[in-house]
Structures are given as C-alpha cells and as structure tokens.
Task: inverse folding
C-alpha cells in the first residue's frame, strides 16, 4: 500500500518531537514535519493554506468555521496550552490594585482575535467583574511596531478597538502611561527591569492553580488542523494522525520524569513536575474531544460573547471526535 505524503507545520515542541525524529510514525502516512515559529505557521496557513496539516490558533480556527466553506477541520489535538493570568501586565503608576480597577481603562492587545486575549477577556469578565465592553482596547505590536489584525473583524459597536500608530508599540505605550494594561501571550519589553511595568496578578502561580481548581480548565491555545480538501479525500487520516499525536505525548512525559540526566535545563524540574501533577492531575495535557469538552465550549462561548464568532459551538462542531464513525480509536 502506498503511503500518503503529508506536510505538517508546527513549533518544535517536546510533545511533537517523536513525530519529527521518527520514534512515532502515523499509520499509512509519511509525515514531513516542518518546524516553524507559530506566527509564521499561522500566517502562511490562514492566508495561503500551504500545509496539509498544521498547528493553528484556536481563535483563528473558530473564525474560519463561520465562513460559507470552512477550509479546515480540526483534530482533538492541542499542542499549545497555557494559563494566561500571568501575562496580564499593568503600569504600576496607573492606580491599579486589582482586576476591578481595569473597568474604563485603556488596554493594549497584539490582536483582538488572539487566542490568549480571548481567554484573558473572558476570564476577566466571568471571574473578575470586568465586562468585555467596559474596557477600551488598542491593538498593535508588543515589542515591534506595525502589527495588524490577521483577520478582518466585524465587532459590535459597544466594543471599542483602535489600532495604535504604525511606529508605536504596546510596550512603550504601557511604560509611558499611554496604556493602563496589556493583555498578551508574551512579555513587554522592559519587564523585570522597568519599575513602571508589573503584573496584574503578582502571585499568578497560586491564582492560576485556584482557577484550575474551580473551573477544571487548562486553557487551550492551539489545535491541529487538516485542510478540508485533504481530509475529504482521505478521511482515515484523522484517526491515524490523532493516534500518532497521542503516542508522541508519552516520550515527552517520560523525558520530564527522567532524573538521572536532566533533558530540560531546569535544576528543580522534579519538584516542579510534582507540583504540576498535584495541581492538574496526571493527564493534564490529554488530547481528545470528551477530555477537553468543557475547555473548548468555554472558549467558544467567550469568542461569541466578544463579538468574534456568530454563536457558541458544541465541542463536536469544533473538533473531530468519537461521533465520527470513521474516527473511533
């Protein structure tokens, strides 16, 4: 039987590495793994559909589902997850002592539709009393000027989003007091050295553990998509790929637990891993539709509430899963 050649663009994550180095091989598929920075992968796939399979921002993918002919289907595979309380930054001279002080303030975002920012706005609205429309948003590059929204937005009039100038950055505006806060996945230039820059949640590890304990959510950032035209010609690849991605998690878990010779340059990795397992449980990075139903549906609700997507979707409408007879594992 001839094996199917597929290209796959993704960041060089530890949970993908076994697919790249050949320790895990998808059944019936020769997978050409192309390691790329996430920004490049997202741009090339969303704009040009260059790859058969790719990592994709969960927010961008949900936006494509509102198109008349959605170009992608998503596997229940989530290579990037992150708590985002830690990456809400404030100007320490703006008189902000807690989340509620952000109401009526000026908040910078790299892009309104960014997955991290959807989570941050949703969490602030649902858990901290900061409604999405109570803040004025300003979008642009965090450390480099010129960033623009990758996708055209059609937001409700009550949500205020203004692009910053072509030569401005969110980092400089935050330090200068032209912004009161920044929601982002990265870190503003000068953070850690400029006393004007701080975190909204200085005790973020405990805040994020408490959030997970209350909600059961470890936020999904990215999923894995397949070009719909490829999937429709070869529907069996969904099962094969998902099985392979799941198998590739095991060596990543094993490497974290390796104590004799540390594979990660963290001297107290064993203690950190034990704390993570105690807080999140042993399957904290599990793939699968049912395992992630609550996370997916919460994010979809946030996206709709924030004016990005037409309606909240059920998990079965977002990713392939057990409801697909040809996809049972």
Result:
């Amino acid at each position: 039987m001839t094996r199917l050649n597929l290209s796959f663009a993704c960041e060089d994550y530890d949970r993908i590495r076994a697919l790249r180095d050949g320790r895990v091989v998808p059944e019936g598929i020769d997978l050409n793994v192309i390691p790329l920075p996430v920004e490049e992968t997202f741009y090339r796939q969303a704009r040009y559909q260059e790859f058969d399979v790719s990592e994709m921002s969960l927010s961008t993918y949900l936006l494509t589902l509102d198109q008349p002919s959605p170009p992608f289907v998503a596997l229940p595979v989530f290579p990037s997850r992150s708590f985002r309380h830690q990456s809400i930054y404030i100007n320490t001279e703006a008189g902000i002592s807690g989340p509620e002080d952000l109401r009526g303030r000026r908040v910078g975002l790299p892009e309104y539709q960014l997955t991290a920012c959807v989570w941050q706005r949703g969490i602030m609205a649902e858990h901290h009393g900061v409604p999405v429309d109570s803040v004025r948003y300003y979008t642009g590059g965090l450390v480099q000027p010129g960033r623009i929204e990758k996708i055209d937005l059609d937001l409700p009039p009550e949500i205020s989003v203004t692009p910053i100038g072509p030569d401005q950055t969110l980092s400089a505006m935050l330090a200068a007091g032209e912004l009161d806060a920044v929601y982002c996945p990265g870190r503003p230039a000068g953070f850690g050295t400029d006393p004007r820059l701080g975190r909204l949640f200085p005790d973020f590890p405990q805040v994020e553990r408490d959030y997970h304990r209350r909600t059961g959510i470890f936020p999904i950032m990215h999923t894995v998509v397949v070009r719909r035209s490829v999937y429709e010609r070869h529907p069996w690849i969904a099962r094969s790929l998902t099985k392979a991605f799941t198998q590739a998690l095991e060596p990543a878990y094993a490497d974290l637990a390796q104590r004799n010779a540390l594979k990660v340059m963290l001297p107290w990795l064993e203690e950190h891993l034990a704390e993570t397992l105690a807080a999140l449980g042993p399957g904290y990075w599990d793939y699968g539709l049912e395992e992630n139903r609550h996370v997916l549906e919460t994010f979809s609700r946030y996206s709709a509430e924030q004016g990005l997507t037409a309606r909240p979707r059920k998990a079965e409408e977002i990713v392939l899963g057990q409801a697909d007879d040809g996809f049972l594992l």
Observations:
- The longest strand covers residues 72-81.
- The mean pLDDT is 96.
